[in-house]
Amino acid sequence: MRVLVLGGDGFCGWPTSLYLSDKGHDVTILDNLSRRKIDIELEVESLTPIRPIGERLRAWTEITGREIGFVNLDIATEYDRLVDVLLETRPDAIVHFAEQRAAPYSMRTSATNNIRATHNLLVALVETGVDAALAHLGTMGVYGYGWSGSAPIPEGYLTVKVPTPDGELEREILHPANPGSVYHMTKTLDQLLFSFYAKNDGLRITDLHQGIVWGTQTEQTARDPRLINRFDYDGDYGTVLNRFLMQAAIGHPLTVHGTGGQTRAFINIRDTVRCIELAISNPPVAGERPQVLNQVTETHQVLGLAKLVADIMNADIAYLPNPRREAEENDLIVRNDQFLALGLEPTTLSDGLLEEGTEIARRYRDRVDPSKIIARSVWRKGMETAEDLIKELPDED
Amino acid sequence: MRVLVLGGDGFCGWPTSLYLSDKGHDVTILDNLSRRKIDIELEVESLTPIRPIGERLRAWTEITGREIGFVNLDIATEYDRLVDVLLETRPDAIVHFAEQRAAPYSMRTSATNNIRATHNLLVALVETGVDAALAHLGTMGVYGYGWSGSAPIPEGYLTVKVPTPDGELEREILHPANPGSVYHMTKTLDQLLFSFYAKNDGLRITDLHQGIVWGTQTEQTARDPRLINRFDYDGDYGTVLNRFLMQAAIGHPLTVHGTGGQTRAFINIRDTVRCIELAISNPPVAGERPQVLNQVTETHQVLGLAKLVADIMNADIAYLPNPRREAEENDLIVRNDQFLALGLEPTTLSDGLLEEGTEIARRYRDRVDPSKIIARSVWRKGMETAEDLIKELPDED
User: What ipTM score was computed for the predicted complex, to two decimals?
Assistant: First the structure.
């Protein structure tokens, strides 16, 4: 397949691009390198030393003999160029990672950036008539946590009963949106865009509600140091499990926001890349509603993860205020039947890959800037400021 | 109250601004005059001759002795100036009409324009800490038509039963979104923004799901010809009842899209302005979810309206393809209990105001450009083109 990977220079996009290329697909990355520019603005770098995109791509060709195309393009602001690329490449599939990830980072601009990016892409598909299967990276965060009590979170759609004057109607609805951050909110907007353009224009769309990604390397990125994947550890972009590993590696207490009673869904980066190929190989047909798959393999309570890492690596735990308005504790049971049916064999925490993370965190510990570890962004009106957060942090060793 | 009216130069915004000023509120209009600029691009004008904003405002002061402020500002692109205006005026209430209305007009840019406008406003309120009650003009179109069978459309929220392993949970959810156009889709995105910022930041928001507005003048706009309100008759911006009146006035067949079996909700412009004052005078308190009110007073089937106007004004009816993907016929029962409880006394079609429209359409019939009557925009991939539409139109007299 000819595949465009939008955002193919990022933490999920890069290993996905290599995996798809390795599997024989003809891959072109579209990326404006914004994630690297955000590093500059935040004055923080990936824990792992990532190479410039050109060097990465040359290394891949040198090692595998395969070429990956690259176009430096901002889909949120360069609509006409996006149309040109679609017409030139006529892709069979498009993987859309091109949204700014961090919840609090520059929330006003990233929210409108994300919605413009997705909307531009949809309109460009309609305008060009390019009939590509679109796979978009959503998030488990669209469902919120704790909304459905003991009921498992379904895959995108929920069957409900609606009262009528004569009794009840059964209706299948998009699962109600309960985002806990601006970033997750933008993914709930995306869902409505997808529903509309699937219905109105017959676009073929898969929305992948991904859990928290852990791990760093895939089989492909591990082949050469120049192919190494990102590892974000800072308070804005780092995700929970990778952050615990880094914190333990440098003797920093593991920072738990709230009680740690939050249960979240997880997936290893090696499964992310497999899921993407499964998704674009099994798209919906035109006229169908968007296909929604939960891209997760297991759930864990945050505090349980902290204790696990603390035990393995002999670390302390520090409790910080929770920036999200949410229950202190929640259950989480998530359906992922569709990926299992498509053949996904989950990589779980018990598979020993924590060691890989531990090893990477230890190898690159000298690259950590300790001042970037604590999340300092203001997530909502009236929340504790950075200074409050720091004051409440126990003294470090 | 100090009230900002965003989009206060438009069809609903202008009479609302005058009404609120007349009621003693201290009104400032924020508007980028985009509706007038769209007239220029579409090469069409309001059927009624509207005056430049400065002249309108001077006339209002001359007649009433009251001042209405005006700031030429694009809230979608001038975030910093918006923040400045909020800090200078510290409004008690904000009425947000500042979204581009027409469904098909420049759908890509208007959709992202609308979402940026609303998001900028919300973030500016959070950033400035201005605790204004926000009333936003939504649309009945967010609910879609025919989704709930014989059940009345509730006001924003729907109580549903969700299956669980142990039985059922009752949950109140935002009514599922079923927009029939890009424009209505943007209003469904607004709803999610409102839910998030009400929950996360305690913003006080009322979303007014308005029906199709008919009528032209209010008590205030009728006081002087320089205060006259817009009357859009073109295929992009004109709304159904006003278009029928104009078509009949010039001997054009009344254009019905589809079978005319669609039932829609309506409200007279005189009730719109009253509803706005009721809404901003009865806002939710901080911490509450957004308040949603259905701003409608009656429902009619489109063909029934066409026949009514055809009878009164001796006109023919022409059937054109329907650009929306929707059922040919639908029932529509809409709850509007909240506005009735707040004291709204509905102005209905039977109240003789059709005569006003008829009179205006006849008085200004020479201003009609017949080439602008048929809707020529492409609403979706594969729909009939303008040429198809014209071919199918019966010969005009």
Answer: 0.91
